[in-house]
Specification:
The protein starts with 9 loop residues before the first helix and ends in a 34-residue tail after the last strand. By secondary structure, it is of the alpha/beta class. Helix 1 runs parallel beside helix 3. It is extended and about 60 Å long.
């Protein structure tokens, strides 16, 4: 916060820039797949953990603007990889590192987790 306004931190700027990049990647993938297949209508089913699927909301909304005759179904599933193998979903969003050789995966983003503690906390002691 700067004065009465708000100033984006360096981390915020990085997240914003990476977010724009990820959105563009999703747009490109959607467009390439549907142009390649000439799909004009149908159903796409996406599976994954709810907290991961929430990242897709803006992309799904934009996709549906471009392809109003394609229904996007969201399935909450802890086993998205198995659901793809069993052909219950078209693709999944997962944190699983165990992907069968019969599937392809693409890293969408990586995130850094940090521990936030008071300065006087015992874990803050420098070793």
């Amino acid at each position: 916060r700067v004065g009465r306004g708000i100033k984006m931190t360096e981390a915020g700027k990085l997240l914003f820039d990476k977010g724009k990049f990820i959105m563009q990647q999703f747009d490109d993938v959607y467009n390439e797949i549907f142009e390649l297949k000439g799909v004009k209508r149908g159903v796409i089913t996406i599976g994954g953990l709810l907290e991961d699927l929430t990242y897709l909301t803006p992309y799904i909304m934009k996709f549906q603007q471009h392809y109003p005759n394609i229904v996007v179904k969201i399935i909450e599933s802890e086993v998205a990889v198995n659901q793809i193998v069993d052909k219950n979903i078209d693709f999944g969003i997962t944190r699983s590192a165990q992907i069968p050789d019969t599937l392809t995966n693409t890293l969408l983003y990586s995130e850094e987790l940090v521990l936030v503690i008071p300065k006087n906390h015992p874990l803050n002691e420098k070793s």
